Amino acid sequence: MKKSLTILFLMIFSILIKTTLSRYLSLSFGTPDITLIILVCISIRYGSVTGQLTGFTTGLMEDFLSLSPLGFNSLIRTIIGFLTGLFHDRLIMDPVLFPILSVSLTTLLKGALSYLILEIFKVEYSGSIFITTSFGFELLMNALLAPFLFQMIKVLFDVILKERKTL
């Protein structure tokens, strides 16, 4: 219960930062996706079920707070949460290289899934689309922020939940 509440609070906080502060901190060529980085970290730490649930709920919250079609972000983040959760306890994780690689790959996956969904359903959407300057900047910023956020989440969960898992 304490783990679920901590994850929920962390994801709500990241979505609020993304939706409110990004207006003020946004550069003309894009912003990092902090929520995605945290989702990847939590999914790898706790597995596919937690990753799917976290991805679905945060995606649904993002859908309600943004102009994206309802279900768009929740579908993408559910898939990402499931796939990254498959690596739970299967990898030896380097504190710098692993977060960069995992977040970079999931950012590319997010872009590809976004493009695929928009093409299949013929949806007009002005968000971050695959192979644009803003997507490239998002990929770079996500990769650079990943080691710091992974370490902060590790410390947070070690302190709050008194866990000692390697991440």
Automatic annotation (TrEMBL):
Main localization of the protein described in the UniProt heading: membrane
Keyword Transmembrane: yes
Keyword annotations from UniProtKB, A to Z: Cell membrane, Cell shape, Membrane, Transmembrane, Transmembrane helix
A single GO cellular-component term on record: plasma membrane
Its membrane topology: Multi-pass membrane protein
InterPro entries xref list: Cell_shape_determining_MreD
Presence of the UniProt keyword Cell membrane in the record: yes
Subcellular location: Cell membrane
Transmembrane segments: 64-84, 96-117, 129-157
Highest taxon, organism lineage: Bacteria
GO biological process: regulation of cell shape
Assigned protein family: Belongs to the MreD family.
Protein's name in the database: Rod shape-determining protein MreD
Provenance organism: Oceanispirochaeta crateris
High-level lineage: Bacteria, Pseudomonadati, Spirochaetota, Spirochaetia, Spirochaetales
Gene: mreD
